[in-house]
Amino acid sequence: MELHNYLSDQYTKTTAAAYGREITLYLTAHPGAGHYRYGQVLDYIGQCRNKYSHPQTINRILASVKVYYDWLCHSGQRTDNPAKSIRLRDRRARDLQLQDLFQPEELERLLERKERYGDLLIRNQVLLSLLICQGLQLGELTGLRVADVRLAEGTIDVKATAKTNARTLPLKPRQIMLLHSYIGQERPRLLREKTEALILTKLGTAERGEGIHYLVSTCQGLFPDRRLTPQTIRQSVIANLLKQGHDLRVVQTFAGHKYPSTTERYRQSQIEELKAAVQKYHPFG
Asked: For labelling alongside 285, which of 5, 61, 102, 130 has CA 20 to 30 A away?
């Protein structure tokens, strides 16, 4: 099996592409890596540590290298994975940054942004509404198909990803109107290639994620003191639901979390919020 096919079979499209890029970089710098042993792989990770400072980047590189050797084993080119036992001691950035989260009324302001391209107004409102109402991940958004939208039922089917479960979520009334207009009029006008993807780029092709990041970045001016990304929007949506008193299991299902412990991380107390505010405005307090 070719590496590309192996990645496509084992991982989501976004994850497969990310692993593929890192593996290509690895093999370009080390053409003989297919025969490397533990020490040589460890040396490469050490080189990456000197080049990159963020723990998440190093973890992604190591994960990609492990996948590469998994493929070699799967295809019969090796019988061992020299990277399998490598573990990083870096503390992964898993803690939520409470000071970056947004209140529901702040998220609503994203829909009021001035649209630079008038012909993308409906598409962008659909996209932003799916972020702030359903709290979808980037991979979930790009994985949506037209058939996943059920206007008559007022719901949308979200497919499973490597990190989230499949689920059916209710649409808000205004979203039903937006999606009706987008699917019936705007999307056919934008379409330039044969695709069932719900979200299209301004060039009429299936959205892969870059355009979503860009769209959200155009709203950063509304909150210059906080980090606005698709991820912090999703985190805010989940945290707000818990703060409003919704049951943990209900929120877990809504978010698609596979484990309740993942949802529990979003629970905030008034004391935690106060600590976050103190840390932000009085870092030496």
From this structure: 102
Report the run of H or E that residue 283 belongs to, with start and end. none
Q: Which two tokens stand for residue 4?
A: 């590309």
CA dist., res. 248 & res. 123, Å (int): 32
- DSSP SS3 for 252: helix
Burial 135-147 (b: 16+ CB within 10 A, else e): bbbbbbbbbbeee
149-150: strand order across its sheet: 149-150, 155-158, 167-170
Task: Give 220-238 pLDDT, tens digit per residue.
Answer: 889 888 888 898 999 999 9
Say how many CA atoms lie within 13 Å of 220 toward its Cβ: 12
Q: Which of 170, 198, 172, 195 is nearest to 183 (CA)?
A: 198
Interior angle at CA 144, CA 172 and CA 253, nearest 5: 60
Neighbours of 278 (CB within 10 A): 12
Give the C-alpha separation, 210 to 90, whole Å.
28
User: What pLDDT does residue 92 have?
Assistant: 45
> Residue 277 — very low, low, confident or very high, per pLDDT cuts 50/70/90?
low
State the average pLDDT for the chain. Answer: 88
pLDDT at 285 over 50: no
User: What is the residue extent of each domain of the chain?
Assistant: 3-74, 98-281
Q: How high is the pLDDT of residue 267?
A: 79
Q: Enumerate residues 6+ apart whose C-beta is below 8 A from 8.
A: 16
Q: Residues in the chain, how many?
A: 285
User: Looking at residue 53, what is its pLDDT?
Assistant: 67
Architecture of domain 98-281 in CATH?
A: Orthogonal Bundle (1.10)
Q: What's the token pair of residue 187?
A: 């999307």
Q: Which amino acid is at 246?
A: H
pLDDT at 3 over 80: yes
**Position 96 pLDDT exceeds 80:** no
